[in-house]
Amino acid sequence: MSNALRVMEKNGETCEIKEDNMIQLTNVSKIYQNGARALVDVTLKIGKGEFVFLVGPSGAGKSTLIKLFYRDESPTRGQVTINSKNLVRMKEREVPYLRRNIGVIFQDFKLMTNKTVQENVAFALEVIGVSSKEVRNRTSKALELVGLTNKENAYPHELSGGEQQRVCVARAIINNPALLIADEPTGNLDPETAWGIMELLYDINKRGTTIVMATHAKAIVNKMQKRVIAIEDGRIARDDEKGGYGYDT
Amino acid sequence: MTLNSTRYIVRETVHSMRRNPWLSIASVLTVTVSLVILGFSVFFLANASNMAKSFESQLEIAAFVQNGTTQSDIEGLQTQIKGMPGVASVTVVTKDQALLDFGKTMGGSQSNILADLGGTNPFPDKLTVKATDPQNVVALADAMKGLPGVDKVRYGQGFVDKLLKFTQWLRWIGLGVVVAFGIAAIVLISINVKMNVFSRRREIQIMKLVGASNSFIRWPFLIEGMALGLVGGALAAGIVGMGYNWITMYVQSTLTFLPVVQNAILFQQVSVGILFAGMAMGALGSGFSLQKFLKS
pTM for this structure? Predict the structure, then answer.
Protein backbone atom coordinates (compact mmCIF):
# COMPACT_ATOMS: atom_id res chain seq x y z
CA MET A 1 0.00 0.00 0.00
CA SER A 2 2.85 2.34 0.77
CA ASN A 3 3.70 2.86 -2.87
CA ALA A 4 0.13 3.29 -4.00
CA LEU A 5 -0.46 6.40 -6.01
CA ARG A 6 -3.39 8.62 -5.43
CA VAL A 7 -4.45 10.88 -8.23
CA MET A 8 -6.15 14.09 -7.34
CA GLU A 9 -7.91 16.55 -9.59
CA LYS A 10 -6.95 20.07 -8.61
CA ASN A 11 -7.52 23.36 -10.43
CA GLY A 12 -7.81 21.51 -13.70
CA GLU A 13 -4.34 20.00 -13.43
CA THR A 14 -3.57 16.55 -12.18
CA CYS A 15 -1.06 15.96 -9.45
CA GLU A 16 0.12 12.75 -7.88
CA ILE A 17 0.47 12.32 -4.17
CA LYS A 18 2.65 9.44 -3.15
CA GLU A 19 1.40 7.99 0.09
CA ASP A 20 4.91 7.38 1.38
CA ASN A 21 5.53 11.12 1.35
CA MET A 22 5.34 12.83 4.72
CA ILE A 23 5.79 16.31 3.30
CA GLN A 24 5.01 17.46 -0.20
CA LEU A 25 5.26 21.07 -1.36
CA THR A 26 4.19 21.97 -4.88
CA ASN A 27 5.21 25.36 -6.32
CA VAL A 28 4.92 27.04 -2.96
CA SER A 29 5.48 30.77 -2.68
CA LYS A 30 5.10 32.86 0.42
CA ILE A 31 4.92 36.63 0.25
CA TYR A 32 4.32 38.43 3.54
CA GLN A 33 1.98 41.38 3.84
CA ASN A 34 4.91 43.80 3.87
CA GLY A 35 5.93 42.46 0.46
CA ALA A 36 8.84 40.31 1.68
CA ARG A 37 9.25 37.22 -0.51
CA ALA A 38 10.14 34.48 1.97
CA LEU A 39 9.71 31.51 -0.37
CA VAL A 40 9.73 31.42 -4.16
CA ASP A 41 8.25 28.50 -6.09
CA VAL A 42 9.49 25.76 -3.79
CA THR A 43 8.76 22.16 -4.74
CA LEU A 44 9.88 19.55 -2.24
CA LYS A 45 9.21 15.99 -1.17
CA ILE A 46 10.25 14.44 2.11
CA GLY A 47 9.48 10.75 2.57
CA LYS A 48 8.15 9.02 5.67
CA GLY A 49 10.94 8.11 8.08
CA GLU A 50 13.50 10.49 6.57
CA PHE A 51 15.92 12.64 8.57
CA VAL A 52 16.44 15.97 6.81
CA PHE A 53 18.62 18.95 7.69
CA LEU A 54 17.54 22.39 6.51
CA VAL A 55 20.53 24.70 6.21
CA GLY A 56 21.12 28.15 4.82
CA PRO A 57 21.88 31.67 5.95
CA SER A 58 19.65 33.43 8.46
CA GLY A 59 16.61 34.97 6.82
CA ALA A 60 16.79 32.65 3.82
CA GLY A 61 13.34 31.22 4.50
CA LYS A 62 14.01 28.18 6.71
CA SER A 63 11.66 29.27 9.47
CA THR A 64 8.89 30.19 7.05
CA LEU A 65 9.23 26.80 5.36
CA ILE A 66 9.01 25.03 8.71
CA LYS A 67 5.97 27.05 9.77
CA LEU A 68 4.13 25.87 6.66
CA PHE A 69 4.42 22.28 7.91
CA TYR A 70 2.33 22.80 11.04
CA ARG A 71 0.17 25.48 9.42
CA ASP A 72 1.41 28.39 11.48
CA GLU A 73 1.69 30.07 8.09
CA SER A 74 -0.25 29.40 4.88
CA PRO A 75 1.38 29.71 1.46
CA THR A 76 0.46 32.60 -0.81
CA ARG A 77 0.56 30.19 -3.76
CA GLY A 78 0.99 26.46 -4.20
CA GLN A 79 -0.02 23.36 -2.25
CA VAL A 80 1.25 21.93 1.04
CA THR A 81 0.47 18.32 1.85
CA ILE A 82 1.45 16.77 5.18
CA ASN A 83 0.82 13.08 5.78
CA SER A 84 -1.66 13.03 2.85
CA LYS A 85 -3.60 16.01 4.23
CA ASN A 86 -3.91 19.15 2.16
CA LEU A 87 -3.11 22.03 4.50
CA VAL A 88 -4.26 24.77 2.16
CA ARG A 89 -7.79 23.42 2.03
CA MET A 90 -7.82 22.37 5.68
CA LYS A 91 -10.56 23.94 7.79
CA GLU A 92 -9.59 25.97 10.86
CA ARG A 93 -11.15 23.45 13.24
CA GLU A 94 -9.10 20.57 11.78
CA VAL A 95 -5.80 22.33 12.51
CA PRO A 96 -5.54 21.18 16.17
CA TYR A 97 -5.76 17.54 15.04
CA LEU A 98 -2.95 18.08 12.51
CA ARG A 99 -0.75 19.64 15.20
CA ARG A 100 -1.32 16.78 17.62
CA ASN A 101 0.47 14.53 15.16
CA ILE A 102 3.40 16.89 14.70
CA GLY A 103 5.99 17.59 17.39
CA VAL A 104 7.66 20.96 17.16
CA ILE A 105 10.86 22.01 18.90
CA PHE A 106 10.64 25.78 18.74
CA GLN A 107 13.62 28.05 18.38
CA ASP A 108 12.29 30.19 21.24
CA PHE A 109 11.01 27.14 23.21
CA LYS A 110 7.46 28.50 23.59
CA LEU A 111 7.03 27.29 27.15
CA MET A 112 4.12 28.50 29.25
CA THR A 113 5.74 30.67 31.91
CA ASN A 114 3.12 30.08 34.58
CA LYS A 115 3.23 26.29 34.29
CA THR A 116 5.88 24.02 35.76
CA VAL A 117 8.14 21.84 33.62
CA GLN A 118 5.91 18.87 34.34
CA GLU A 119 2.74 20.78 33.42
CA ASN A 120 4.26 22.15 30.23
CA VAL A 121 5.16 18.69 28.98
CA ALA A 122 1.90 17.15 30.19
CA PHE A 123 -0.14 19.77 28.34
CA ALA A 124 0.44 18.09 24.97
CA LEU A 125 -1.23 14.97 26.38
CA GLU A 126 -4.03 16.74 28.24
CA VAL A 127 -5.08 18.35 24.97
CA ILE A 128 -5.93 14.87 23.62
CA GLY A 129 -7.76 13.85 26.80
CA VAL A 130 -5.34 11.18 28.06
CA SER A 131 -6.09 9.83 31.55
CA SER A 132 -4.24 11.56 34.37
CA LYS A 133 -2.41 8.37 35.32
CA GLU A 134 -1.08 7.93 31.82
CA VAL A 135 -0.20 11.62 31.65
CA ARG A 136 1.96 11.20 34.77
CA ASN A 137 3.66 8.06 33.48
CA ARG A 138 4.44 9.35 30.03
CA THR A 139 5.50 12.79 31.25
CA SER A 140 8.01 11.41 33.72
CA LYS A 141 9.37 9.05 31.04
CA ALA A 142 9.80 11.93 28.60
CA LEU A 143 11.51 14.08 31.23
CA GLU A 144 13.81 11.18 32.08
CA LEU A 145 14.69 10.89 28.41
CA VAL A 146 15.84 14.52 28.25
CA GLY A 147 17.46 14.32 31.70
CA LEU A 148 15.21 16.72 33.57
CA THR A 149 13.62 14.42 36.14
CA ASN A 150 14.90 16.51 39.03
CA LYS A 151 13.49 19.77 37.56
CA GLU A 152 9.88 18.56 37.29
CA ASN A 153 8.43 21.22 39.54
CA ALA A 154 10.59 24.13 38.42
CA TYR A 155 9.14 26.99 36.41
CA PRO A 156 10.74 27.85 33.02
CA HIS A 157 12.35 31.06 34.30
CA GLU A 158 14.24 29.00 36.88
CA LEU A 159 15.92 26.95 34.14
CA SER A 160 18.93 27.63 31.92
CA GLY A 161 18.41 28.06 28.17
CA GLY A 162 19.58 24.52 27.52
CA GLU A 163 17.19 23.11 30.09
CA GLN A 164 14.29 25.03 28.61
CA GLN A 165 15.27 23.68 25.21
CA ARG A 166 15.09 20.14 26.58
CA VAL A 167 11.64 20.76 28.10
CA CYS A 168 10.53 21.80 24.64
CA VAL A 169 12.04 18.58 23.22
CA ALA A 170 10.21 16.48 25.81
CA ARG A 171 6.91 18.13 24.94
CA ALA A 172 7.51 17.67 21.21
CA ILE A 173 8.18 13.93 21.43
CA ILE A 174 5.68 12.92 24.13
CA ASN A 175 2.90 12.22 21.61
CA ASN A 176 5.09 9.95 19.47
CA PRO A 177 4.37 12.25 16.53
CA ALA A 178 4.67 11.02 12.96
CA LEU A 179 6.60 14.19 12.11
CA LEU A 180 9.08 16.01 14.33
CA ILE A 181 10.10 19.51 13.33
CA ALA A 182 13.07 21.11 15.02
CA ASP A 183 14.01 24.75 14.56
CA GLU A 184 17.60 25.15 15.83
CA PRO A 185 17.19 22.60 18.61
CA THR A 186 20.86 22.77 19.57
CA GLY A 187 21.31 26.50 19.22
CA ASN A 188 21.41 27.18 22.95
CA LEU A 189 23.21 24.06 24.08
CA ASP A 190 26.82 23.29 24.92
CA PRO A 191 28.33 20.69 22.51
CA GLU A 192 27.90 17.82 24.94
CA THR A 193 24.19 18.44 25.57
CA ALA A 194 23.71 19.16 21.88
CA TRP A 195 25.01 15.71 21.01
CA GLY A 196 22.73 14.25 23.66
CA ILE A 197 19.76 15.84 21.93
CA MET A 198 21.00 14.62 18.55
CA GLU A 199 21.27 11.07 19.83
CA LEU A 200 17.73 11.36 21.10
CA LEU A 201 16.51 12.60 17.71
CA TYR A 202 18.45 9.82 15.99
CA ASP A 203 16.72 7.21 18.16
CA ILE A 204 13.31 8.73 17.56
CA ASN A 205 14.00 8.72 13.82
CA LYS A 206 15.05 5.06 14.03
CA ARG A 207 11.61 4.26 15.42
CA GLY A 208 9.99 5.70 12.31
CA THR A 209 9.41 9.36 13.04
CA THR A 210 10.19 11.74 10.17
CA ILE A 211 12.50 14.53 11.31
CA VAL A 212 13.09 17.92 9.72
CA MET A 213 15.71 19.98 11.49
CA ALA A 214 16.74 23.53 10.65
CA THR A 215 20.23 24.20 11.95
CA HIS A 216 23.44 26.17 11.75
CA ALA A 217 25.45 23.47 13.53
CA LYS A 218 28.04 22.55 10.91
CA ALA A 219 29.68 19.79 12.94
CA ILE A 220 26.41 18.01 13.55
CA VAL A 221 25.32 18.12 9.90
CA ASN A 222 28.69 16.88 8.66
CA LYS A 223 28.85 14.06 11.20
CA MET A 224 25.28 12.74 10.78
CA GLN A 225 25.52 12.25 6.98
CA LYS A 226 21.80 12.74 6.35
CA ARG A 227 19.89 14.47 3.56
CA VAL A 228 20.69 18.19 3.47
CA ILE A 229 18.44 20.80 1.85
CA ALA A 230 19.95 24.28 1.54
CA ILE A 231 17.64 27.28 1.27
CA GLU A 232 18.92 30.56 -0.13
CA ASP A 233 16.79 33.62 -0.89
CA GLY A 234 13.61 31.59 -0.59
CA ARG A 235 14.68 28.94 -3.11
CA ILE A 236 16.11 25.45 -2.76
CA ALA A 237 19.80 25.91 -3.62
CA ARG A 238 20.94 22.36 -2.97
CA ASP A 239 19.40 18.99 -2.06
CA ASP A 240 21.98 16.28 -1.29
CA GLU A 241 21.10 12.73 -0.29
CA LYS A 242 24.03 12.38 2.11
CA GLY A 243 25.40 15.84 2.35
CA GLY A 244 27.50 18.12 4.44
CA TYR A 245 26.79 21.56 5.83
CA GLY A 246 28.46 23.22 2.87
CA TYR A 247 28.89 26.67 4.36
CA ASP A 248 31.88 28.15 6.09
CA THR A 249 31.09 29.21 9.61
CA MET B 1 -15.88 16.56 26.36
CA THR B 2 -14.27 13.58 28.02
CA LEU B 3 -13.94 13.05 31.76
CA ASN B 4 -10.19 13.63 31.54
CA SER B 5 -10.69 16.96 29.86
CA THR B 6 -13.24 17.95 32.49
CA ARG B 7 -10.72 17.18 35.21
CA TYR B 8 -8.13 19.26 33.40
CA ILE B 9 -10.53 22.19 33.02
CA VAL B 10 -11.50 22.24 36.71
CA ARG B 11 -7.86 21.98 37.82
CA GLU B 12 -6.78 24.64 35.34
CA THR B 13 -9.51 27.02 36.54
CA VAL B 14 -8.43 26.69 40.17
CA HIS B 15 -4.74 27.01 39.27
CA SER B 16 -5.33 30.10 37.22
CA MET B 17 -7.23 31.81 40.04
CA ARG B 18 -4.46 30.92 42.49
CA ARG B 19 -1.71 32.16 40.20
CA ASN B 20 -3.36 35.51 39.58
CA PRO B 21 -5.00 36.18 42.96
CA TRP B 22 -4.91 39.97 42.52
CA LEU B 23 -6.46 39.87 39.09
CA SER B 24 -9.14 37.52 40.45
CA ILE B 25 -9.86 39.83 43.38
CA ALA B 26 -9.98 42.83 41.06
CA SER B 27 -12.46 41.02 38.80
CA VAL B 28 -14.65 40.04 41.75
CA LEU B 29 -14.64 43.58 43.12
CA THR B 30 -15.44 45.05 39.71
CA VAL B 31 -18.44 42.76 39.39
CA THR B 32 -19.47 43.52 42.97
CA VAL B 33 -19.23 47.30 42.65
CA SER B 34 -21.05 47.42 39.34
CA LEU B 35 -23.80 45.08 40.50
CA VAL B 36 -24.25 46.95 43.81
CA ILE B 37 -24.76 50.16 41.87
CA LEU B 38 -27.01 48.36 39.39
CA GLY B 39 -29.01 46.75 42.21
CA PHE B 40 -29.54 50.05 43.98
CA SER B 41 -30.57 51.72 40.75
CA VAL B 42 -33.18 49.01 40.22
CA PHE B 43 -34.57 49.78 43.68
CA PHE B 44 -34.38 53.49 42.90
CA LEU B 45 -36.37 52.89 39.72
CA ALA B 46 -38.92 50.78 41.60
CA ASN B 47 -39.35 53.50 44.21
CA ALA B 48 -39.47 56.33 41.72
CA SER B 49 -42.09 54.49 39.75
CA ASN B 50 -44.01 53.61 42.90
CA MET B 51 -43.91 57.20 44.13
CA ALA B 52 -45.12 58.49 40.80
CA LYS B 53 -47.94 55.94 40.81
CA SER B 54 -49.05 56.78 44.32
CA PHE B 55 -49.09 60.49 43.51
CA GLU B 56 -51.02 59.87 40.35
CA SER B 57 -53.52 57.51 41.91
CA GLN B 58 -54.54 60.31 44.23
CA LEU B 59 -55.62 62.34 41.24
CA GLU B 60 -59.37 62.51 40.79
CA ILE B 61 -61.95 64.74 39.20
CA ALA B 62 -64.78 66.13 41.27
CA ALA B 63 -67.90 67.06 39.31
CA PHE B 64 -70.36 69.04 41.48
CA VAL B 65 -74.00 68.59 40.58
CA GLN B 66 -76.34 71.59 40.24
CA ASN B 67 -78.72 72.11 43.12
CA GLY B 68 -82.11 70.56 42.71
CA THR B 69 -81.05 67.72 40.46
CA THR B 70 -83.06 64.59 41.18
CA GLN B 71 -81.61 61.33 42.34
CA SER B 72 -82.42 59.61 39.05
CA ASP B 73 -80.78 62.42 37.06
CA ILE B 74 -77.63 61.97 39.16
CA GLU B 75 -77.62 58.27 38.42
CA GLY B 76 -78.13 59.07 34.75
CA LEU B 77 -75.09 61.35 34.87
CA GLN B 78 -73.09 58.59 36.56
CA THR B 79 -73.79 56.07 33.80
CA GLN B 80 -73.14 58.70 31.15
CA ILE B 81 -69.71 59.54 32.59
CA LYS B 82 -68.91 55.87 33.08
CA GLY B 83 -69.49 55.40 29.37
CA MET B 84 -66.86 58.01 28.45
CA PRO B 85 -63.56 56.59 27.18
CA GLY B 86 -60.73 56.60 29.71
CA VAL B 87 -62.89 56.56 32.82
CA ALA B 88 -61.94 54.01 35.47
CA SER B 89 -64.63 54.57 38.08
CA VAL B 90 -67.38 56.96 39.04
CA THR B 91 -68.67 57.15 42.61
CA VAL B 92 -71.54 59.28 43.82
CA VAL B 93 -71.02 61.24 47.00
CA THR B 94 -74.44 62.55 48.08
CA LYS B 95 -74.71 65.80 49.98
CA ASP B 96 -75.64 63.81 53.12
CA GLN B 97 -72.52 61.69 52.75
CA ALA B 98 -70.41 64.82 52.18
CA LEU B 99 -71.79 66.35 55.36
CA LEU B 100 -71.07 63.16 57.26
CA ASP B 101 -67.44 63.08 56.00
CA PHE B 102 -67.02 66.73 56.86
CA GLY B 103 -68.37 66.07 60.38
CA LYS B 104 -65.85 63.27 60.79
CA THR B 105 -62.93 65.49 59.86
CA MET B 106 -64.18 68.07 62.36
CA GLY B 107 -64.33 65.37 65.00
CA GLY B 108 -67.90 66.07 66.14
CA SER B 109 -71.20 64.21 65.66
CA GLN B 110 -73.20 64.91 62.49
CA SER B 111 -76.35 66.11 64.27
CA ASN B 112 -74.41 68.92 65.86
CA ILE B 113 -72.74 69.83 62.58
CA LEU B 114 -76.05 70.28 60.82
CA ALA B 115 -77.29 72.46 63.66
CA ASP B 116 -74.04 74.44 63.71
CA LEU B 117 -74.39 75.13 60.01
CA GLY B 118 -77.75 76.65 60.61
CA GLY B 119 -79.90 73.65 59.75
CA THR B 120 -79.13 73.57 56.01
CA ASN B 121 -76.66 71.30 54.28
CA PRO B 122 -74.31 73.51 52.19
CA PHE B 123 -72.70 70.62 50.33
CA PRO B 124 -73.80 69.83 46.78
CA ASP B 125 -74.05 66.29 45.45
CA LYS B 126 -70.74 65.24 43.91
CA LEU B 127 -69.44 62.68 41.43
CA THR B 128 -65.86 61.50 42.01
CA VAL B 129 -64.26 60.34 38.79
CA LYS B 130 -61.02 58.43 38.39
CA ALA B 131 -59.27 58.20 35.05
CA THR B 132 -57.57 55.01 33.78
CA ASP B 133 -54.57 57.12 32.76
CA PRO B 134 -53.72 60.28 34.72
CA GLN B 135 -52.76 61.87 31.40
CA ASN B 136 -56.48 61.94 30.48
CA VAL B 137 -57.57 63.94 33.52
CA VAL B 138 -57.59 67.36 31.84
CA ALA B 139 -59.45 66.20 28.73
CA LEU B 140 -62.02 64.30 30.81
CA ALA B 141 -62.65 67.29 33.04
CA ASP B 142 -63.22 69.49 30.00
CA ALA B 143 -65.68 66.99 28.54
CA MET B 144 -67.58 66.72 31.81
CA LYS B 145 -67.98 70.51 32.05
CA GLY B 146 -70.39 70.45 29.16
CA LEU B 147 -72.74 67.83 30.59
CA PRO B 148 -76.24 69.00 31.61
CA GLY B 149 -76.70 69.11 35.39
CA VAL B 150 -72.99 69.55 36.10
CA ASP B 151 -72.26 72.78 37.94
CA LYS B 152 -68.50 72.91 38.43
CA VAL B 153 -65.61 70.59 37.73
CA ARG B 154 -62.51 70.58 39.90
CA TYR B 155 -59.34 68.56 39.36
CA GLY B 156 -56.54 70.67 40.83
CA GLN B 157 -55.94 72.68 37.67
CA GLY B 158 -52.29 73.62 37.19
CA PHE B 159 -51.17 71.26 39.93
CA VAL B 160 -51.96 68.19 37.84
CA ASP B 161 -49.84 69.37 34.95
CA LYS B 162 -46.87 69.96 37.21
CA LEU B 163 -47.30 66.67 39.05
CA LEU B 164 -47.55 64.69 35.83
CA LYS B 165 -44.39 66.32 34.49
CA PHE B 166 -42.62 65.60 37.75
CA THR B 167 -43.58 61.92 37.88
CA GLN B 168 -42.60 61.49 34.25
CA TRP B 169 -39.17 62.94 35.02
CA LEU B 170 -38.86 60.71 38.06
CA ARG B 171 -39.42 57.63 35.90
CA TRP B 172 -37.01 58.75 33.18
CA ILE B 173 -34.28 59.53 35.70
CA GLY B 174 -34.75 56.14 37.35
CA LEU B 175 -34.52 54.36 34.01
CA GLY B 176 -31.54 56.49 32.98
CA VAL B 177 -29.67 55.57 36.16
CA VAL B 178 -30.24 51.85 35.58
CA VAL B 179 -29.15 52.01 31.94
CA ALA B 180 -26.09 54.17 32.66
CA PHE B 181 -24.80 51.95 35.42
CA GLY B 182 -25.63 48.80 33.48
CA ILE B 183 -23.41 50.01 30.64
CA ALA B 184 -20.71 51.11 33.08
CA ALA B 185 -20.74 47.67 34.70
CA ILE B 186 -20.33 45.86 31.39
CA VAL B 187 -17.51 48.17 30.30
CA LEU B 188 -15.65 47.72 33.62
CA ILE B 189 -15.93 43.96 33.47
CA SER B 190 -14.93 43.66 29.84
CA ILE B 191 -11.83 45.80 30.49
CA ASN B 192 -10.96 43.55 33.38
CA VAL B 193 -11.42 40.34 31.42
CA LYS B 194 -9.50 41.77 28.47
CA MET B 195 -6.56 42.47 30.77
CA ASN B 196 -6.79 38.94 32.07
CA VAL B 197 -6.85 37.41 28.60
CA PHE B 198 -4.21 39.81 27.28
CA SER B 199 -1.83 38.81 30.07
CA ARG B 200 -2.20 35.24 28.84
CA ARG B 201 -2.18 35.72 25.07
CA ARG B 202 1.23 34.07 24.74
CA GLU B 203 -0.03 31.10 26.70
CA ILE B 204 -3.08 30.87 24.42
CA GLN B 205 -0.88 31.01 21.32
CA ILE B 206 1.31 28.19 22.67
CA MET B 207 -1.74 26.09 23.52
CA LYS B 208 -2.89 26.41 19.92
CA LEU B 209 0.52 25.42 18.56
CA VAL B 210 0.56 22.30 20.72
CA GLY B 211 -2.78 21.25 19.27
CA ALA B 212 -5.41 22.51 21.71
CA SER B 213 -8.82 23.07 20.15
CA ASN B 214 -10.51 26.42 20.69
CA SER B 215 -13.13 24.96 23.03
CA PHE B 216 -10.42 23.29 25.12
CA ILE B 217 -8.76 26.70 25.58
CA ARG B 218 -12.03 28.51 26.11
CA TRP B 219 -13.60 26.37 28.86
CA PRO B 220 -11.25 27.18 31.75
CA PHE B 221 -11.57 30.90 30.96
CA LEU B 222 -15.36 30.69 30.79
CA ILE B 223 -15.67 28.76 34.03
CA GLU B 224 -13.23 31.06 35.77
CA GLY B 225 -15.21 34.07 34.55
CA MET B 226 -18.46 32.53 35.71
CA ALA B 227 -17.06 31.60 39.13
CA LEU B 228 -15.60 35.06 39.71
CA GLY B 229 -18.83 36.66 38.48
CA LEU B 230 -20.87 34.48 40.81
CA VAL B 231 -18.74 35.42 43.84
CA GLY B 232 -18.98 39.09 42.89
CA GLY B 233 -22.74 38.72 42.40
CA ALA B 234 -23.19 37.04 45.79
CA LEU B 235 -21.29 39.85 47.54
CA ALA B 236 -23.33 42.44 45.65
CA ALA B 237 -26.64 40.73 46.50
CA GLY B 238 -25.69 40.76 50.19
CA ILE B 239 -24.63 44.39 50.18
CA VAL B 240 -27.69 45.54 48.22
CA GLY B 241 -30.06 43.48 50.40
CA MET B 242 -28.68 44.72 53.71
CA GLY B 243 -28.15 48.25 52.45
CA TYR B 244 -31.67 48.59 51.14
CA ASN B 245 -33.11 47.15 54.33
CA TRP B 246 -31.23 49.72 56.36
CA ILE B 247 -32.27 52.61 54.10
CA THR B 248 -35.90 51.49 54.21
CA MET B 249 -35.90 51.43 57.99
CA TYR B 250 -34.24 54.82 58.15
CA VAL B 251 -36.65 56.43 55.68
CA GLN B 252 -39.70 54.93 57.32
CA SER B 253 -38.72 56.23 60.74
CA THR B 254 -37.74 59.73 59.61
CA LEU B 255 -39.58 60.55 56.39
CA THR B 256 -42.86 58.79 57.12
CA PHE B 257 -44.78 60.46 54.30
CA LEU B 258 -42.56 58.88 51.62
CA PRO B 259 -43.95 55.65 50.25
CA VAL B 260 -41.13 53.05 50.27
CA VAL B 261 -41.30 49.84 48.29
CA GLN B 262 -40.97 46.83 50.54
CA ASN B 263 -41.76 43.90 48.38
CA ALA B 264 -40.35 40.48 49.29
CA ILE B 265 -40.82 39.21 45.73
CA LEU B 266 -39.02 42.19 44.23
CA PHE B 267 -36.28 41.65 46.80
CA GLN B 268 -35.88 38.02 45.75
CA GLN B 269 -35.98 38.86 42.07
CA VAL B 270 -33.30 41.52 42.42
CA SER B 271 -31.02 39.20 44.44
CA VAL B 272 -31.36 36.28 42.02
CA GLY B 273 -31.03 38.71 39.13
CA ILE B 274 -27.78 40.09 40.55
CA LEU B 275 -26.36 36.55 40.97
CA PHE B 276 -27.20 35.57 37.41
CA ALA B 277 -26.09 38.92 36.02
CA GLY B 278 -22.71 38.43 37.71
CA MET B 279 -22.32 34.95 36.25
CA ALA B 280 -23.45 36.03 32.80
CA MET B 281 -21.16 39.08 32.84
CA GLY B 282 -18.19 36.91 33.77
CA ALA B 283 -18.90 34.28 31.13
CA LEU B 284 -19.79 36.71 28.34
CA GLY B 285 -16.88 38.97 29.19
CA SER B 286 -14.32 36.17 28.93
CA GLY B 287 -16.04 34.63 25.91
CA PHE B 288 -16.01 37.83 23.86
CA SER B 289 -12.51 38.83 24.89
CA LEU B 290 -11.15 35.38 24.06
CA GLN B 291 -12.74 35.23 20.63
CA LYS B 292 -10.33 37.84 19.31
CA PHE B 293 -7.30 35.89 20.50
CA LEU B 294 -8.51 32.52 19.30
CA LYS B 295 -8.81 33.69 15.71
CA SER B 296 -5.41 33.58 14.13
Answer: 0.69
